[in-house]
Amino acid sequence: MSLPLPPRVDPKIWQICVGPDVKIPKIHSKVYYFPRGHLEHACSSPTAATRTILDRYRSSIPCIVSSVDLFVDPHTDEVFAKLLLTPVTDQEPPPPVVPGQEDDDGDNLVSYVKTLTQSDCTRVLCVPIECSNLIFPKLDLDKSQSITVTDLKNQEWRYTYTYSNSSRLHTGWLNFVREKKLVANDSVVFIKNSAGKISVGIRRNTKFTTDEAAEGSENLTDEIKVLDAAELAEKNTAFDVVYYPTASGWRDFVVDAKTVDDAMKIGWKSGMRVKLPLKKYESSNSKMTISQLKGTISFVFNHSSNVPNWRILEVNWDGLDIPQIPNLVNPWQVEVYNIHAPSTSSSTVNNPRLAESSSPQQIPYSMPGTSGTLPDT
């Protein structure tokens, strides 16, 4: 007996919850599926046996996105996408891309992301003035009002909203925090539609690790599910992947085909200077700052292959020794800014196992070059 489907989420609300840097590929668009990236996303410490099995398969499989479904996890309240991927050959012309339908309903949404403090999680929610003006009803000084907010599973929550020196959510708020198991540095996403209905989504700062979530949530897919997907892909049989944006970080493994192909055309060599734009969003108002991380390529793994491979560039970042910044990256994640830099070591290493020897950690930044790319379960 199949399990019931989790609640579906409106595409506009789904996009607001994940943020502007996450882009779901369109139906019938061409992508590459990377089994090793899938394994990184699903398993923090995969076994050597699983790695050995994946070594027998192609490093990447070109696919067409056959369907996209957007859901909310019933255990963690995090949004995720389920993609049906159909492997294709180079001789098969892709079907026409289906235009997005998310802007057709005419509903105008406004939103605000509030990163929670310790006080927010233990006392009351202090609502910034910008959030009050955008989302909540106007109140006179020292007045209060009961408001209803609906979560993405369509459950209603009633709060007491007050305005004194600042706006706050009181009665009912801590019940919401306990039920959702929210902690400091998690975020709540308030969304209001043109009819005045207020919804709330959740962005978790770290992976949800309760026993219930570990047993029931698809974003904690084990190695067996990764191997099943990789085996189906190798046999050119359609397969499902599940993508949790908050768990992606550096592990996007379903990637827009043109993005990959363009990056693989570059003659990558050791000694090249590259830059990595890092986008960071301020905690409460979602304003973005961009910094440039620069480094030098020290090794290139398997670039002679016609098949795109996973993490073929090893980069020494300038003046940094931070574990959260991976030194093994994909070509589509970086930009060349000095192609004539002198070589410092051998340019290419044809050993696929070297390129997967370390498991980079997720960092609290948005990775460049991932527009139209996805990870999965």
Q: How many H/I helices?
A: 9
Mean pLDDT: 80
Task: Give the overall form.
Answer: globular
The secondary-structure class comes to: alpha+beta
Number of folding domains? 2
- Major beta-sheet overview: 7 strands, mixed
Helix content: 10-25%
Q: How far apart lie the N and C ends?
A: 22 Å
Number of strands: 17
Q: Radius of gyration over alpha carbons?
A: 22 Å
Provide the spatial order of strands within the biggest beta sheet: 4-9-10-6-7-8-5
Oligomer category: single chain
N-to-C SSE string, H for helix and E for strand? HEHHEEEHEHEEEHEEHHEEHEEEEE
Q: Can you tell me the residue ranges where pLDDT is under 50 for at least 5 consecutive residues? A: 212-220, 342-377
Query: How much of the polypeptide forms β-strand, as a percent range?
Result: 25-35%
Which terms would index this structure?
about 375 residues, alpha+beta, 7-stranded mixed sheet, about 20% helix, disordered C terminus, transcription regulation, DNA-bd_pseudobarrel_sf, DNA-binding
